[in-house]
Amino acid sequence: MNWYLAGIIIYVIVLAAVLLRILFETHSSNKTLAYILLCLFVPVGGIIFYLLFGVNYWRKKRYSKKMRENFGVLKHLKSNVAQYDKVSINAGTLPAAENAELASMLIRDLGSPLTSSNEVKLLVNGEQKFPEVLKAIRQAKHHIHLQYYIYECDETGMSVIELLIEKAKQGVIVRFIYDDFGSPSIKKKLEKRMTNAGIEIFPFHKITFYLLANRLNYRNHRKIIIIDGHTAFTGGINVSDKYVNKEIPGKLYWRDTHMMMRGPAVYYLQYLFITDWKFCCGKDFVADDAYFADPGKTGSSCLVQIAAGGPDSPLPTILYSILQAIYLAKEEILITTPYFIPGDSLLDALCIAALSGLTVKLLVPGICDSKFVNAASKSYYSKLLDAGVEVYIYQKGFVHAKTMITDGRLSMIGTANMDYRSFDLNFEVNAVVYNTPFAQQMRNVFFNDLKDAEKIDKERWLSRSWSEQLPEKIARLFSPVL
User: Fold this and answer.
1) Of the residues 31, 143, 167, 223, which is catalytic?
2) CATH of domain 65-84+121-299
3) Known catalytic membership, residue 276
4) Does the active-site annotation cover 228?
5) 302: burial class by Cβ within 10 Å (0-12, 13-18, 19+)?
6) Where do the domains of the chain lie?
7) pTM
8) Could you give the C-alpha distances from 178 to 181, 219, 469, in angstroms and in order?
9) What is the C-alpha to C-alpha distance for residues 178 and 182, in angstroms, rounded to an integer?
């Protein structure tokens, strides 16, 4: 009996200490509440979960050093591209003028230049992305940099790997960063072969034992390819056969969006890769002019800026950039996201926009790879519908694209979902394109996707039974820690 009582007292003391730590260390009130509820209603297991995934002591120690290194590389970047900022802002194009506050925020927060004279190409689904990627890799002369969250060793993945090995044998420098959580097959099957071929390859965070790895909570979700410092790819498409829609019985249709760019906008993506490379492998990287090559004349005047965020960012830049774009919109906001767990600030911004008379349309998946996340997402629809936001459920397959278009003039394409993980925990990157013709392309794709979507009927949705809503309400309680 004495041992039992002692155990209870020790548990209560530990629980109280953990709850105090949650209150003082967790800045988001939603996250704080979620962790507290988890610890209170899941004895022992909730505490273990928080200590493994919620404590940021490793993050502070590790990423403070990365922030200092980032600043050093950024100084070199600024010396190369600072002239683009003033020239681009003063160019007077309508999308840039209407969103000058957004551009200024990214310049001040990240040092991300607003660059002109870029050429951009919209790539819809893997069928359009991978031929362009293979073509660009074949043309590489100096270096190829790749960074992926999910890289699978299937037909699509191997076609890229074989070409990378070929280019490495030709003397092209090939560097590859993969996320150890998202791409376990690389380590098991290909890392040694690629290294033997002359490719430098490292996991962003090496995970030795998953159950005790606090670092797996901080995932590098970026998808970046840079060729010779002047051509780059980014967007939502990882490297896997599932992103290529072939006529195979039973294969899920995968709807996603990517983009290719040429020009000075590539410089900031290069900066992100270099800082991530220095962090994950610990090797010095001399960022000479070969990595910030003169893009030459692209034949286009497209304005592009890069928004990036992660645990090494002092501010939630991805979230702030989305909020600022919503605040600046005057007529229309079109959003596609596979995971929608917005938090109060984003939810309120969308509701305010709709109540102010703007057309706000949200496209989300009907088929999702996480039932729990999908249930949590549904819990937010009632407030949106009540404010006048139109919510569409994609029916053709799984919509994995992460895009936003405002007023038919500003576009965002990237890796960030509209959820807590992308805003706070993951390393993410979005391209912001200030260009009307490109935005119109994006807009056309969005409305084409609506043809394969079902619009939620407001009255029917709001009148659902409590038994239908209960699982969604429960899932929402834990949405900040999903």
Assistant:
1) 223
2) 3.30.870.10
3) no
4) yes
5) buried
6) 2-53, 65-84+121-299, 317-481
7) 0.86
8) 9, 10, 39
9) 8
